[in-house]
Design goal:
By secondary structure, the protein is of the alpha/beta class. Helix content is 61%, strand content 14%. A five-stranded mixed β-sheet has the order 3-2-1-4-5, with helices on both faces. Helix 3 links the parallel strand 2 and strand 3 (134-138). It starts with a helix and ends with a helix. The mean pLDDT is 85.
Length: 288
């Protein structure tokens, strides 16, 4: 059995760790509330933008033409992987990396080249260790993403697609469901696949100056919105996963302290009993 001093030292160490994990839990909970608000407020806008785009495509008909809609022979596929800069988020990063690696390997097996764009240090380090070249990296994304964060990523992938660096662009991120549920998914964002028209409400829209011109303005906005949505979902998922992981770590620390307290009390009792036994033995020896 360990001595009382050693057990006390362990108790102080675990208590210190528990304070850190509890503080990290509170910080992540605060960030999660803000990030979750961004996700919830962005979803209606995303749905409405998709509806407008479908109506534009229906109005423009066969005359639809834009570089972001151009479908060409696929030779090189770009993967934009959204993960975190830091760990301590449970299986959040591991699940995203597993999904991204499976998609990349499947693309290579089909005979296509791949390019990796890392949004976060974790995907950059993960793919570099496995011998993949990182084409671009974005490591300074805010914990609560802004439109500027998404615009930088959007500009990069749009330029890469229009110039022919990539013939197809896919994003890999964790869709936010709840603090304890983030679902990794892969979505093709370029070329833009226009949603089917939904005109069941019977409304007829008049676009000025023309559907083609309006469409040329809507398509970059639609692409930026997809990137921004993925970014907010990814960050909300990260904060939720870290809050859950730190909550479990805090609970484990409290349970370990309780066990160590019990062990310390037993060690102290054993030491007291041993001292009493020695005193009694000494007294008996003097009396004898």
């Amino acid at each position: 059995m360990a001595s009382g001093k050693e057990i006390k030292r362990r108790i102080r160490s675990v208590q210190s760790t528990g304070k850190i994990t509890k503080a990290m839990k509170l910080v992540s909970a605060s960030k999660l509330r803000r990030a979750q608000g961004s996700v919830v407020s962005a979803r209606p806008y995303k749905d409405k933008l998709k509806e407008v785009l479908s109506r534009l495509v229906a109005s423009a008909g066969a005359s639809v033409s834009d570089p972001l809609l151009e479908v060409r022979e696929v030779k090189r596929v770009g993967y934009v992987v959204f993960a975190s800069n830091k760990g301590l988020a449970g299986g959040y990063n591991a699940n995203i990396m597993k999904e991204a690696l499976a998609q990349v390997k499947a693309t290579v097996e089909q005979g296509y080249e791949v390019g990796i764009v890392a949004v976060g240090k974790k995907p950059r380090d993960f793919f570099q260790k496995r011998g993949y070249t990182i084409d671009e990296e974005f490591l300074a994304v805010n914990d609560i993403p802004s439109a500027a964060d998404a615009d930088a990523i959007t500009k990069m992938i749009k330029t890469a697609y229009v110039t022919g660096k990539y013939d197809e662009v896919r994003i890999v991120y964790a869709e936010f469901r709840s603090a304890m549920s983030q679902i990794p998914k892969t979505v093709k964002v370029l070329p833009i696949e226009t949603p089917e028209s939904e005109t069941a409400d019977g409304l007829d829209y008049i676009f000025e100056p023309s559907p083609d011109i309006v469409l040329s303005q809507i398509l970059p906005l639609y692409l930026a919105n997809q990137v921004f949505s993925a970014l907010t979902e990814a960050k909300a998922g990260e904060h939720g996963a870290r809050m859950t992981a730190m909550s479990a770590a805090s609970d484990n620390a409290a349970a370990l302290v309780a066990r160590l307290d019990l062990e310390y009390n037993r060690a102290r009792q054993a030491a007291i009993t041993n001292e009493i036994t020695e005193i009694c033995a000494g007294a008996n020896a003097l009396n004898g």
